Amino acid sequence: MTSTLRLQPRREYHIVVLGAGGVGKSCLTAQFVQNVWIESYDPTIEDSYRKLIDVDGRQCVLEILDTAGTEQFSEELYMKQGQGFLLVFSITSMSSLNELAELREQIIRIKDDENVPIVIVGNKSDLEEDRAVSRSRAFALSQQWGNSPYYETSARRRANVNEVFVDLCRQIIRKDIQSSQERNLDQAINGRLGAIDAQGRHNGRLRNHRKRPKVKGDCVIL
After folding, report:
1. In the chain, what are the domain boundaries?
2. Mapping DSSP to helix (H, G, I), strand (E, B) and coil, where does residue 9 land?
3. Rounded-to-integer distance, Cα 124 and Cα 110, Å
4. Class (C level, CATH) for 12-176
5. pTM of the complete model beyond 0.70
6. Which residues form a coiled coil (predicted)?
7. pLDDT, tens only, 170-182
């Protein structure tokens, strides 16, 4: 029996994970993609991952770039390519939170878009006794950035790991749909204007080729 359901085509989205060194970017990404906890890692190595996920009935292939140890030039290149960004800090480090503002400004400047999909991630929520960033401080930043979603995660305990990537993917999908609708509207308007212009030229040619009525002169007999 042939299914009558129309399958949504897979879409590929590029996600970039940014943040200060040691906040757990690699651990967070590895937990999401491979479901593993990394006890030790090389902070100088960047890595990329691919994962297929289902978001609200849509199959999405996420190309995830972990920017650990990335040089400034490469970081800017990845910002150009990225469609969505996880900005990660550690709840045990206020300085790691403060670094996010500069990263966001850089993203907006490079993308020339103040509505870039962003999720703010406060990692290491399992280290509550070492907390240096209050939830109210993080939520204030979220509101300051136009209510960008904020999650507290624990890569070690896998708390809210899936949620941050799915939320970001939803934002990218919404933006993708909105951009597609705007393109279709522009094409429809341009097509309509083109048709009107073509019809006007056609009508002009008809007027130019319209036969003039013959005028019969009076016959005078001398």
Report:
1. 12-176
2. coil
3. 29
4. alpha beta
5. yes
6. none
7. 999 999 998 877 7
